Amino acid sequence: MTANTIAINQLMDKFDGHHSVWLFGYGSLIYKADFPYLQRRPASIAGWTRRFWQGSHDHRGTPEAPGRVVTLIEEAGAICHGMAYLITPEVFTHLDHREKNGYLRLAIPITFEDGEVEGLVYIATPDNIAFLGAASEQDIAAHIARSAGPSGPNSDYLNHLASALRELGRHDQHVFDIERHLAALRAAPSE
Ligand code: SIN
User: Fold this and answer.
1) Which GO molecular function annotation, any one, does this entry have (predicted)?
2) For the chain, how many helices (H) and strands (E)?
3) What are the residue ranges spanned by the domains of the chain?
4) Torsion angle of the four alpha carbons 59, 111, 19, 73, in this order, in degrees rounded to the nearest 10
């Protein structure tokens, strides 16, 4: 599959005719809402886990030296906590551009503390060409430490995400382990 998903996402007609749609964010969409929204609420989705397994060619790395950003991986019993936004359909033009490096819109049940709605999430599936896949948290931290792209250092993405999860009161072992390894790398005397 091509790394640029804009055309595929524009064919998504599931919510055509709706005045507003709930979008679930689990990565930079938690801490960087650079789009208009009608409501913003902490939420979760079931059966998916957050992993720094997606390559970033356009935000936190380059095509030659991709950074690492999060995607969702299916895992029975897992719960992924994040932030949901109620948006109008026009906002998808901006979001499709922002998430164009491998992410596809997927319809998904979104859970709030007082109920459930059907909404959308952007997921970079393992068949997209920017997908990097599994690595140890230590190796991911080293990869993030040396990566940067047009949106800034890859480490900012990780640190902003870790802080946003703490603000939400949510523990994510994978994210916090990478943060710890990155801090240790930064603290190590350079040769
Ligand atoms: C998301 O935040 O929901 C998608 C991944 C990202 O943009 O970091």
Assistant:
1) transferase activity
2) 6, 7
3) 6-187
4) 30
Quick check: CB of 69 below 6 Å from ligand 1?
Answer: yes
In the reported structure, the alpha carbon of residue 60 is separated from the centroid of ligand 1 by a whole-number distance in angstroms of 12
pLDDT digits (tens, 9 = 90+) for 171-189: 999 999 999 999 999 998 7
Contacts with 146 (C-beta within 8 Å, 6 or more apart), sequence order:
65
Ligand 1 pocket residue status of 25, Cβ below 6 Å: yes
Q: Which of 144, 188, 190, 174 is nearest to 48 (CA)?
A: 174
**Structure-derived torsion over alpha carbons of residues 152, 165, 175, 64, reported in degrees to the nearest 10:** -20
Q: 189 C-alpha to center of ligand 1: Å? A: 33
Regarding the beta carbon of 99 and ligand 1, being less than 6 Å apart is answered yes
pLDDT at 5 over 70: yes
Confidence of residue 13 (pLDDT cuts 50, 70, 90): confident
Give yes or no for residue 27 CB within 6 A of ligand 1.
yes
Name the nearest CA neighbour of 100 among 147, 65, 150, 139.
150
Q: What percent of the chain is modeled with pLDDT above 90? A: 87
Atom of ligand 1 nearest to the CA of 161: 8
Contact 137, 178 (CB under 8 A): yes
